[in-house]
Amino acid sequence: MVTNANLQSARTARDDEFYTRYADVDAELSYYMPDLKGCRVYCGADGPESMFVRWMLDHWDALELSGLTATRFNPSAPLFGCGTRYDWTRPDRDPVESALYDGDLLGDECRAILDASDVFVSNPPFSLMRHILPMLADSGKRFCVLGTLNMLKYNGVFDLILSERLWTGVNADGRMLFDRPDGGVRRLSNCVWLTNMEAPLRACPPFTPGAGIPSAGRSTSGPTIRTSTRSTHCRPISTGWRACR
């Protein structure tokens, strides 16, 4: 039986579906190549046409990847078999395709794939990020995902920043174009990469523990969250913090 909840979930998934462009993926992931070397990578909201997958295949030999897995959820599929899994053992071979019971990134199947991987890289559904980010941090895996600046203000996510388990990535201009399934283009002005992998950033004044949650705007006393179109890097370094741009 199709319930209102099922229909709403499918509608939300379709509204959340827009694809990152190769140039944007390359501009960010190129900074994390040392962290990716020799790893098994999991792209958790992707198929063979994903630019995250294509970037990994293009750089397979340079990164000496040990494997690549991608999964995606299909909200219009029947009740069972709503997800698909793709596994690559070589960049020049077609992936091994298999069905998943549901394909839910927060479900047991995908969590088991995450547990068997070293790095998670993707553009997950923004509507689920308040749950996905804590899950990734708790997994102990390295990750780099695309989100929005507003996500930094979620209670669970800001706690990750304060506990030095999450910071923003290198490219923080905020303005990005995404391709839609219908061939259209979606423009967002508050995008931000979220990661726990190392990347070069300029040093800024350290965060003082106990200083409290900073107000919006530029701060010299702690990690800053700005709600403008230019996001601010917040990330740990040794015992303090540095924030950039």
- Order of strands across the widest beta sheet? 5-4-3-2-6-7-11-8
**Topology as H/E string?**
HEHHEHHEEEHEHEHEEEEEE
**With helices defined by DSSP (H or I, 4 residues minimum), what is the helix count?**
8
- Helicity level: 25-40%
Assess the beta-strand content as a share of residues: 15-25%
Rg calculated over all Cα atoms: 18 Å
How far is it from the N-terminal to the C-terminal residue, by CA? 51 Å
Average residue pLDDT: 79
How many β strands by DSSP?
A: 13
Notes on the protein architecture:
This protein has helices at 4-15, 22-29, 33-36, 51-58, 60-63, 108-115, 129-139, 155-162, and strands spanning 19-20, 40-43, 67-73, 83-88, 96-100, 119-122, 142-148, 167-168, 176-179, 185-188, 191-195, 233-237, 240-244. The protein is α+β, with helices and mostly antiparallel strands. The strands form three sheets. It has an eight-stranded mixed beta sheet, sandwiched between helices. It has a three-stranded antiparallel beta sheet with strand order 1-9-10. The protein is globular and about 40 Å long. It starts with a helix and ends with a strand.
